[in-house]
Structure formats: structure tokens, C-alpha cells
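Thread title: Can someone regenerate the structure for this chain?

I was given the following input by a collaborator and told the matching C-alpha cells would be attached. They weren't. Posting the sequence so someone can regenerate them.
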Amino acid sequence: MSEPVNPQADPTRSSRDRGELRARLTSWLTGRLGRTSDVEIGEVSSPEGSGMSSETLLFDATWTDDTGRHSQALVARVEPDSADVPVFPTYDLELQFRVMELVGATSTVPVPATRWYEPDPTALGAPFFVMDRVSGRVPSDIPPYLMEGWLLAATPSEQRALQDASVGLLAGLHGIDTTAHDTDFLLTSARGDTALVRHMNNQRAYYDWSRGTRRHPIIETAFDWLDANWPDEEGPDVISWGDSRIGNVMYAADGFEPVAVFDWEMAALAPQEMDIGWMIFMHTFFQEIAHALEIPGMPDFMRRDDVVATYEAQCGRPVRNLEWFEAYAALRHGMIMTRVTERSVHFGEAEWPDDIDDVIPHKHVLQAMVAGTWWD
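Best answer:
Regenerated them for you:
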């Protein structure tokens, strides 16, 4: 029997040398600011307990300009090395930079201040951008926040306050008038008559790329179910965060209000339910892991009726076809988990199981969704 990937294990994310990155960042920032800037960069590290897509580098930088000496805690988001079996086939760092600038300028959604976008891969070996680092605390992915940590230790009213504030981020984001700003850069490259059709076709292409020679029966069944149950009404399209989950939010160090929203690499134009369904499902994903381990978790957190009521009250628009979008979220995350397994196999941390679909920890959830029994 082969070993699938352990969703609680902290897998290898990168083979890049941190010392070399520090030297290259110093050289790049000196070139950006000028030779008289006297740039100094401290140790380069990466956050623990986070996801595995774009590479995140944390460092402190000091430099001199016409106004004096400056010190700033910074974060660089770097396209992953292709040798490290990245989760996605492409990483549009310019899109991430632009959407953060747009969101920061046109909404109350807190995003880190963006500094520089560098498209030239020669500096660090891949394109990247730099933003200011924000202080606070983030619910952990590894181990999941509902197994240990500050959010689990919070009172029910504090957990609900965080939930409502997180749903409020979606309402704030989706309130941006897409007709008043250039948002065409958020349309996926796949063909289609609507933003949702294009998004789905993009996901089909992702499956074909990520699976290689493998076939995942549950994923293909889910695609068929989604096609057969396509929403009657798709719109209106909004700026969709894409990876709308609390693990991509930093909250106040001494409170439960959001202070920064991260990880915009899955941003797109899509119906509002895309983000709502993803936020609900991602907690379901972790809660089902806790259930399998016979751990209570947080069963009263991110319940769909509560999330919908909060969103509709703040946004003023009805939520439609949410079951479809929850199933779409489960499908999309299932494909990501197959690619995560590919990475873990590459780094010698896992092997492919006998049943190929066992690498999807929420396989039973997706099966119940396409059978129509999950929401009974």
C-alpha cells in the first residue's frame, strides 16, 4: 500500500537557497534605488504553516535616499521554480500586483502597500513583486487552525466576530464597480461567452495539465455534474479574490478584525458566489479532516446559512446557486490536492496510493455533492 500526502504534514515548498536570495535581493534593490542607496538586507525567511503556491520571502531592508535612512519590513512574492513542481502552470505576478493596487485604491478591503513589480527574471531567477509587511496573526493551514492555535482557543463570540469580518471582506471586494475601472486583465485566458464559462474552461485546461497521464474518476464525474447543473443565472460578475479563505487573511495581533488580505494569484472576474462557495468549502475541508481524526474542530464556524445571511446583509444582493459553487470549489481544490501530491512525490515525501483519488482528502465530500446528498 502506497502513502498519500498527509494534509497535516508541512511539505517542502522550495529548493532555492536563502543565502543566495539575500545577496540577489540586495543587488536588485541597489540597482532599483541607485548605487548611493547603501542597501542592507537581513536574513531571508518564509512564513510557516502557509500554502504552497507562489514563494513568499520575508526580509528587512534598510536604505538611504534624499530624505534620509529608511528601514522597512518587506515581503516578496516570487514565481516558483519550475524544477520544484509548482502547483499552477503559470504565475501572473503582474496580475497579482495590479489587483492589489486596484483593491487598495477603490475599497475598504485592507491589502499590503505594494512597492515594486519586477518582471525581469534575471534578478531572482523568476518575476516577483515586493510589498510592505503587515503585523498581525494568521490562522494556520498546517496544522489547521481548527486543531490548535489562537482561533480555536477563542470564545464562540470572538470566532463569530472573525467570521463576520471575513465575510465582510467579500462584500467589500464585490462592491467595487468593475465598470468604472480596467478589469479586463482579470478575465481568464480560456475562451467562453461569459466569465464563468471562461473560468470553467480554464479549470479544464488545468486538470489536463496537472494530471499528466493519470485519470481521476471523481474529478471527471464532478465536471460532468457541474455541466449538467449549470446555474441559470451567472451574474453579476465581480472582482473575485479566488482563494478566499481565512488562512489568507492577517488579523489584528490583539483582536479579530482583518488587517491585510493576501494571495491574489487566483483572482479573476467571476460571479460573487465563487468566493462565497470557496470560503465555506475551505472550512469544510479542514473540518472533515478534524472529523476523520475524531477531533471536534469548529463545527459551528462558517456555516453556510450564517455566511449567506451576513453577506446578503452587507452586500445587499441575494446569493444564488451556492450549492453549485460549493461543488465547484470542492472540484477545484481536489485538482490542487493532486498537484500537491505530485510535489510531495517529487520531494520524496509521499507516494501515489493504489486508489488514485485517495490523494483528495475530501473525496467523500465531492462524491456526496455530485450525488446530491451533501446538503440534505
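The chain has two domains: 18-132, 150-371.
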